[in-house]
Amino acid sequence: MAESEGGEKTEDPTPKKRKDAIEKGDVLQSKDLGAAMVVLAGAAWLAIGGPILTQALAELLRDALRFDRGAIEDFEPGRAVTGMLLRVALPMAALLLVTLLAAVGTPAILGSLGFRWSAIAFKGDKLNPLAGIKRIFGMQGVTELLKAMAKVAVLGALGWWLLGKRLQGLTTLGRGDIAGAMNELGQSFVFAVLVMALGLFAIAGIDIPAQIIRRQRRLRMTKQEVKDEHKQSEGSPELKGAVRRRQMEAARRSSRQAVREASVVLTNPTHFAVALRYRPGEDAAPVVVARGRGATADAIRALAEEAKVPMLRYPELTRALYFTTRAGQLIRQDLYIAVATVLAFVFNIERARAEGIDQPVVDVPGEVQFDEHGRPAA
After folding, report:
1. Looking at the structure, do residues 201 and 261 belong to the same domain, yes or no?
2. pLDDT digits (tens, 9 = 90+) for 240-280
3. Where are the residues of the annotated region Disordered (predicted)?
4. CA atoms of 241 and 67, how far apart (whole Å)
5. Do both 132 and 279 map to the same domain?
6. Which domain holds residue 42?
7. Is residue 187 part of a domain?
8. Most C-beta atoms within 10 A of its C-beta, which of 39, 81, 86, 205?
């Protein structure tokens, strides 16, 4: 049973596993979506920039076939060729830019945009012929074959439909003027490319969920791997102690002055700590000057001892203040009575201790009672 739990990959990948996979280049990708994006960008460019390119090519052909006496006397082939090529350079550069943006936009849509050196690093297992045969004849190879057949079927059907629909019109183009024929041919070509792009998007709509499922299965973990990763993230006791000490130092620096101004510090007694200040005539109501849990609570208690600020144990009231009020804010109105009772005891604490009077019991309204996780206790 233990071997089964440790060997079968039945657990969803952890955030760390996903992050490590991304750093190694194992990201969600779809070649079909990339092809569809590039083809669609090309179709859009043909619809917008095609006439510009056609006009540039026509001017290029006209100038190439036309010459006069000046062209013979001042013959400079380099300048002539450069001038001709510059006319078509801008439209072609626009086409390259559009397709490049489409290629980059594909991983951006899938959330996989980024350059990773580990993805292009040398991998010796890629040279293993047995691994290559397994990829070809395994489930991945069968899936890729089915995808290729689906592409051929879809694109072939679209091509047949387009050809059958426009065949009669194309065969009669030569009967009209050449300009009209070229315009009609260009429109037919743009429409065909656009339809092909939509067909590729339909295929990508099937491919992307398949890629998501395949990657999810590839990243699955065994129960033992999850346990080992959890142990690594927990770290050694020495490391956790060092982290806790750094947290306490940071909390002490940020809370030192606030705790010195506090009238009382309420504790949980160990998980939470809330420092309250009330100055009659200055504060409209008690103010939470510092609050924290864990290492921050430890730092607040240590600072309170250092500054000789009274500390009282009120678990329910401490949690209520922690989860309902931020540092620097007045307490909630429904906690006025409970906090006023505590402050009245604190302001007369010396006399109360001399007379042996215990700290008062306070009632916390049910709607502000919480457990240590912040869930309503009621």
Report:
1. no
2. 666 666 666 665 666 778 888 899 999 987 789 999 999 98
3. 1-21, 223-247
4. 87
5. no
6. 19-115+125-211
7. yes
8. 39
